[in-house]
Amino acid sequence: MSSFDLAGVGFSYGGPATQLEGVTVQFTAPEMVALVGPNGAGKSTMLGVMAGLRAGYSGSCRFDGVEVRDWNRRSFTRFISFVPQNLRLDFPFTAEQVVLMGRTPYAGGLFESPEDWEAVEQAMRWTDTLAFRAREFRSLSGGERQRVVLASALAQGPRVLLLDEPTAFLDLEHQLSVYRLLREQTERGLLVIAVTHDLNLALSYASRLVALKHGRLVADGPPNEALTGARLRDVFGVSAEVLSRPDGRAWIAYGD
Amino acid sequence: MAIERIEPRRLTAAVTLALAVFCVAALLAPLAGSATVDWKKAVAGEWPDSEILFGTRVPRVLLALLSGGSLSLAGVLFQALLRDALATPYTMGISSGASLGAVLAICFGIRTLAGLPGLWVAAFAGSLLTLVLVLAIAADGRRMSSFTLLLAGVTMNSISMAFILLLHNTADFGQSFAIVRWLMGSLEPLDYKTLLVLLATVLPVSVWLFVKARQWNLMAVGEEWAAARGVSPARLLLSGSIAGSILTAFVTALTGPIGFVGLIVPHALRLRYGADHRVLMPCAFLWGGTFLLVCDTIARVAMAPAELPVGVITAIIGGPWFIVLLRSRRRSLWV
Amino acid sequence: MRRLAAALLVVPLLGQTPPQRIVSTAPSITETLFAAGLGERVVGVTTYCRYPPQVRRLPKIGTFLEPDFEKILALRPDLVFTIKNPVQLTERLRKLRLNAVELDQDSIASIFRSLEAIGQAAAAEKQTAALEANLRQGLEEVRRSTAGKPKLSVLFVVGRTPGTLEGMIAAGKSSYLDELLAFAGGRNVFDDSPVPYPKIPHEELLSRDPDVILDIGDFAHAEGSSRERREQILALWRKYPKLKAVRTGRVYPLASDIFVVPGPRMVEAVREFRRLLHPEAAR
User: Fold this and answer.
1) Please, what is the angle between helix B213-221 and helix B233-255, to 10°?
2) Which of A8, A36, A39 minimizes the C-alpha distance to A22?
3) Domain final residue, candidates C119, C141, C163
4) Which residue does chain B place closest to A107, by CA atoms?
5) Is there a contact between A52 and B227 if contact means CB atoms under 8 Å apart?
6) Is residue B335 in a domain?
7) C23: closest CA of chain B, how far (Å)
8) Mean pLDDT confidence for A162-191
9) What is the pLDDT of residues B64-93, one digit of tens each?
10) What percent of chain B is helix, strand and coil (3-state, nearest 5)?
């Protein structure tokens, strides 16, 4: 069972300010975690540490019992996929080529193996991107691009998906379709951890919510328990009310 | 529905075409020239026909193919590494470093160094020194990124150019003419030993770059993107810029800076074949060689018996052709 | 400052006294002035001027492409000679209210025309006419002595990439050297070139196979003629042992600026050519 085990994780970019401090938390697949917090709370930094992109962290961050920075990068990226916030390309790669890049951790030669192609096909089917696989990535709409990037991450055949604001630039319909997709992946047994600013989406789709403020962990639990009006005021500095829907799920009403 | 898996076939088709044109050009180019050559005599080894064909035209054709190929391949590589569509083999300061070395050799009258023409040695040393400085500046303190690399390259470029201008100002008339000539760049019939050394450098470096093509794809997207797919961007940046610089430095030491090849050939190929470096890199080498060969052949015969600087031809042909390419495809290069 | 400007304006206007403070902006002009016996009046020359030797002690005004206008003004010249050039030197000097006269000295005919212009401007017609007669006589003497001789084909290399035979620039059609060679019983092998100083490919060198090769060496050092340097140049040419000039030992390294500075030393230059091409005609 894939699991992340963070104990006292800290990180700083070299200045006096710390981005992350003493974060202790465990994640075990399958679950879908929403990572929330105000700007500068350290969400992306924490995701980066877990994805092995910030090797200079302090404390201990283990994946499957092995310290992240000690993992062989190639094997590590067969288990962990990282989805960046907004991918901009300088060169005319096609959607399919972007997805194919997800198979690099398995590369044995210059070309993709039949297994690679199967994984790519499967990932593109999940994300419903096969229809424009030959189109140039830069010519796609924002929602299409994000699905292609997601497909590239899924093509890695990961057990963990780490996403940095996967729906930041999408309209409502595409936001929902991405989250639906992430929940499906969770149901397949993956550990999904997504940074998000949209608390209502977090409430609707996540099975667990983790909140950071000033680099510290301030809340952790099922979304409707972890999010309370008091906590919203405390963490985000906004006044809001958490309401209960007839079906038992929660939603947030903002305003004084 | 199984999707069509086209990559290897696309590569074969593209490379076959490029190789065919490359070979045809290589075979035809020695036939052109300002002097008339009797082929029977040339093949029979009679002087001067044989010397003209095998002593001047063939080595020059080979030099054009190797330098054009190297520059265009290095262009593809640096554009990917620096993620800058306008990067050239010279963006890292390699050619201005080479030029500074050459200008020093001209101004101090160094004719031979280590048994080789002093200009070559000085130019090569200049470019390697620049490379070391650029890498040292870019790697200072935090980890090297393509951004710091680009900045360091641009900085070294202007420093070298400043020194060149300074030396040019203090040079006497003949030296200043020689400096301008060198900065224009030109192809000369080199002896076969030098060509063999060039080939022995260019070939393994190019093959290595081709084998790493999937990594360059990742680097062309981004450093984090590459790192999240199990490769080390810092290491690729370092090894890639060293490899590209070796290609550029070797060629530039022998020919002087020749513009445009490293910019337009990669872009033309990207418009035609897309951005996959597995197709792009071998095609860039082959088409780059062909392009420079065609330009040099024109430079040799256009104003015979005088010849033109090949850089003038690459710019005159390359510039407009590039504009046509850009306009004929409605894709934007720099979105 | 105003007085200086006024003085500059007045002198040429008076027109009576011949100009006494002459600035030369090219080596060829300097040589001409000295050859015509006007050297005493020269007060400024370029950094490239080396002949005759006494000019080395004269104040320098920069080069003809980058003259130092302040220095020129400070010398208070009443006459400045310029060579036709792309930086509009003459116009700029005239804007400074200097008496600037433009000359053209890139062929034998234009050198003679420039002599007349110098004579007029400096009120020294007698001296320049004497020099002209002298030069014409010298040229004529060389031409007569080589008249019956076979015309040898000559390659004159004016520059190369230092240390190699590459990047070779030759004297081409209607260049000054092309004319001088004709006087000395030679024929420039590149007299069909479309530009005066073409870069020539090696195949042209091989197929034209000149009788004589005159090599002024690489660009880096036009001066000095050590034996070592001569040896270096000859060693380069041994790359083509079958070339006629190499085979017959008629590759001559040259080391003098008489060939690159068009001017009154042209007679010296054609005599040197005759000595190399037709030694028997030189007595």
Assistant:
1) 110
2) A8
3) C141
4) B214
5) yes
6) no
7) 20
8) 90
9) 999 999 999 999 999 999 998 888 889 889
10) 75, 0, 25
Number of domains in chain B: 1
> Which amino acid is located at C206 in the chain?
L
The number of distinct structural domains making up chain A is 1
Which residues span the domain enclosing C180?
149-282
Check whether B332 has a pLDDT greater than 70: no
User: Residue A150 domain-assigned?
Assistant: no
Give the chain B residue whose CA is nearest to the CA of A158: B229
Of the listed ranges B35-49, C101-115, C181-195, the one predicted with least confidence: B35-49
Q: Tell me the residue range of the domain where B92 lies.
A: 7-328
Contact B117 C163 (CB under 8 A): yes
Domain limits for position A164: 3-87+158-254
- Asked if B87 has any chain A CB less than 8 Å from its own CB, the reply is no
Token pair belonging to B25: 């050009």
What pLDDT band is residue B334 in, cutting at 50, 70 and 90? very low
CB atoms B188 and C167 under 8 Å? yes
Specify whether the backbone of B109 is left (phi greater than 0), alpha (psi in -120 to 50) or beta.
Answer: left
pLDDT for position B205: 97
- Which residues lie closer than 8 Å to C126 by C-beta, 6 or more apart? C119
CATH number at residue B27: 1.10.3470.10
CATH of the domain at A189: 3.40.50.300
Beta carbons within 10 angstroms of residue C227's beta carbon: 7
Question: Does residue B111 contact residue C161 with C-beta atoms inside 8 Å?
Answer: no
Please indicate if any CB of chain B lies within 8 Å of the CB of A94. Answer: yes
How high is the ipTM of this complex? 0.92
Q: Which residue of B has its CA nearest to A155?
A: B229
Contacts of C144 (CB under 8 A, 6+ apart): none
**Is residue B334 domain-resident?**
no
Q: Please indicate, yes or no, if residue B102 is contained in any of the structural domains.
A: yes
**Is B333 a domain residue?**
no
| Segment holding B117, helix H or strand E | strand B116-117
* Residue C70 phi, psi (nearest 5): -60, -45
| CATH code of C203's domain | 3.40.50.1980
Residue A228 lies in a domain: yes
Percent over 90 (pLDDT), chain B: 56
pLDDT in tens, B265-277: 999 999 889 999 9
